[in-house]
Write a structure and sequence with these properties.
- The chain is α/β, with parallel strands linked by helices.
- It has 18 helices and 33 strands.
- The strands form 7 sheets. The protein has an 8-stranded parallel beta sheet.
- Strand 12, helix 13 and strand 13 form a beta-alpha-beta unit.
- Helix 3 packs parallel to helix 4, helix 7 runs parallel beside helix 8 and helix 11 packs parallel to helix 12.
- The longest helix has 32 residues.
């Protein structure tokens, strides 16, 4: 099987045991023959240098020699040979370099500061030695990050702030809950970004002076996913004069938990959406320690499918155990072989599409847990309905940015609402909001609000007053203004065997239109919760209807009735096509799925991806509800494609 530009072309990390050269080459040939994978990243040096000490140039000369030897042995067979540099800033112990100093004053035993000029020269020199072997790519391990408070960085902070701070003083100021802390954090983040990006740029220039065609790429560290676009700056710097390349972080480390899938990949969505289009985006299809004792091939299939739906173009596929027998584990290779054409068809169909749904402006790693299990699609870019889901996100917004959000359709949780009110915008929120007193209620009841008449009087399964396990949920106290409509109320019903009427204690879900025309839905509870107060059928139905009230087309589709079926929506740039990636996160199979569709998609033609071929779907329209008569099994994704009826 020969990989071609029209198919996926994954990069596979590979530990090459030099004392078993023939066996290693045979394994590489078998992988290519059975799966089409041709790009191998030779992993070196081994991380044992972290405790054995700084290696000399001879180790890197041996790496270069291995790259040359492997490439020459496979020269006529279409292989691509690259180097995965697994020792970047985390290097050998005991070096005469500046160790990274943490905020608390402790130092890493083998993680060096990116500003140390001697370390930088050595870093670049080692890359130049291997570049002489002309590897196709050099990828830098995910230990390429810096969060340092050494003397050099303290001097830079002094220059940037106009005042010399001690490390202890900076730690205290940056840990405070105020605007000055945010300002200092941003300055510090910028200095880390500059140190990493400048080293990356110098490395790229040196490597490409030796080997102009060699591409340099970043394996995104989990530790720098959130700090100020460090990922984008370093990725672009490593590119030099070639196309930028990144392995986006989002692995499953020792876990095989279907419900965790969307949250585990939330940063993949964010990174893919916030990097420039010229960056080649590969997903970290990694299940460390890389075998099915820790993660099933089915889980890896679902991870890869979701990453492609989020905008990744290909996979860095950790398909072999790092073992002297690389083919001792074949389950992941078989999964890729069986899905390769399907993955390719999905990726190709998604060209010209963008992820759509609720705009998770904040707390997306945790808010994604709620909305994915609801079956509500979401994006991390501005959307017709934005979501504010924690206080920190509000603190980061300038006043004009916050007012702009409040002048549009906005879904707000209790934590964000408290901060909005504290900032002086309670009038635009439609309620005065403060920290809630101790809970004195035991149920949430639906009021006879417009559009909820059929649910009026229903009790929602509210366990927020309990204090064990995950059930306890902090609930803000929201006092609605005139014109704000209360949709649910927290009440004390007491004993179910008695007939006394419930006593209302506090307002629950509410909605209103403010003086700027902004439609606001406020939930006093938190979207980052795991409480049964939010995880319930009727609460989800209320939320679905409220989102439709905010903006009818905001969610192209939403799952109805069944729990824990995640949905990702990709809308074509011309607005006429929609691709839905649907993944059942529940062990219970779903025989027929019902989707609430936005008005603009009503009566669209529906296809499903059967293997690598699009077929007419067994679909029935019931006004706004689309019924799909296909089985949805645990982690086995279904891909639907809708085309507006007027564009048939």
């Amino acid at each position: 099987m020969q990989a071609t530009p029209s198919t996926l072309d994954p990069a596979i990390p590979f530990v090459f045991y030099a004392d078993r050269e023939e066996a290693m080459l045979a394994a590489m040939r078998e992988i290519k023959r059975t799966t089409g994978i041709r790009h191998f990243l030779l992993i070196a040096p081994a991380k044992t240098i972290r405790f054995t000490g700084i290696p000399g140039d001879e180790l890197y000369e041996a790496i270069a020699a291995l790259i040359v030897r492997v490439r020459e042995r496979l020269a006529s067979e279409g292989f691509i040979i690259s180097w995965w540099n697994t020792a970047t800033l985390k290097f050998g112990c005991g070096g005469p370099f500046t160790l990274m100093t943490r905020r608390d004053g402790s130092t890493s035993p083998f993680h060096y500061c990116a500003l140390d000029p001697d370390f930088r020269r050595g870093f670049i020199h080692r890359c130049e030695i291997v570049a002489a072997a002309h590897p196709h790519m050099i990828l830098f391990e995910d230990d390429y990050f810096c969060d340092c408070f050494c003397e050099r960085h303290l001097e830079q902070m002094a220059a940037a702030t106009g005042r010399r701070h001690s490390r202890e003083e900076l730690a205290r100021l940056m840990g405070a809950d105020d605007g000055d802390a945010l300002r200092l954090q941003r300055i510090h983040t910028g200095l880390m970004r500059e140190a990493l990006a400048s080293l990356a740029a110098e490395t790229a220039a040196a490597v490409q002076a030796v080997s102009p065609g060699t591409r340099l790429g970043l394996c995104q560290p989990g530790s720098i996913r959130w700090n100020g676009e460090t990922t984008a700056a370093v990725t672009q710097a490593f590119a030099g004069h070639n196309r930028p390349w990144i392995r986006i972080c989002g692995a499953s480390y020792g876990a095989d938990q279907p419900l965790a899938l969307p949250t585990m990949l939330a940063s993949v969505l964010y990174t893919a959406q916030h990097l420039p289009d010229n960056v080649e985006k590969y997903y970290e299809a990694d299940t460390f320690p890389h075998n099915r004792f820790f993660c099933s091939a089915t889980m890896l299939e679902a991870m890869s499918t979701l990453a492609l739906s989020y905008g990744c173009a290909d996979l860095m596929l950790y398909a072999t155990h790092h073992h002297s027998n690389p083919l001792i584990e074949r389950g992941y290779l078989a999964m890729y072989r069986d899905n390769r054409d399907r993955f390719t068809a999905l990726r190709d169909a998604l060209r010209g599409h963008h992820v759509a749904g609720l705009g998770l402006a904040s707390a997306y790693p945790t808010a994604s847990r709620l909305f994915s299990r609801y079956g509500f699609p979401y994006t991390t870019l501005p959307a017709p309905v934005q979501v504010l889901a924690d206080a920190d996100a509000v603190r980061l917004l300038a006043d004009d940015e916050l007012v702009q959000l409040l002048s549009r359709p906005l879904l707000v949780d209790g934590a964000a609402a408290i901060e909005i009110a504290r900032r002086g915008y309670a009038d635009l929120l439609g309620a005065d909001v403060s920290e809630g007193a101790e809970s004195d209620f035991d149920v949430e009841i639906v009021r006879p609000a417009a559009g909820f008449e059929d649910l009026a009087g229903e009790n929602l399964y509210s366990m927020a007053h309990y204090r064990w396990g995950l059930e306890y949920d902090k609930i803000a106290e929201a006092r609605p203004h005139a014109g704000t409509e209360v949709v649910t109320e927290f009440a004390l019903r007491g004993q179910s065997v008695l007939t006394e009427p419930a006593s209302v204690r506090r307002a629950g879900l509410m909605r209103g239109v403010n003086r700027l025309g902004g439609r606001i839905v406020l939930a006093p509870t938190c979207f980052t919760t795991q409480s049964a107060n939010f995880y319930g059928y009727q609460k989800r139905e209320l939320m679905r209807r409220l989102v439709r009230w905010l903006a009818p087309d905001a969610m192209p589709a939403a799952v109805m009735e069944v729990p824990n079926v995640a949905l990702t929506a990709n809308v074509a740039s011309n607005g006429n096509g929609l691709i839905l990636t649907i993944i059942n996160l529940c062990v219970d199979p779903v025989d027929t799925l019902r989707l609430d569709m936005a008005p603009c998609w009503r009566d669209a033609d529906v296809e499903w991806l059967d293997g690598a071929t699009w077929q007419r779907a067994p679909a029935t329209w019931h006004e706004a509800v689309l019924e799909i008569a296909l089985p949805f099994e645990l982690l086995k994704s279904r891909i639907l494609r809708l085309t507006k009826a007027s564009k048939r």
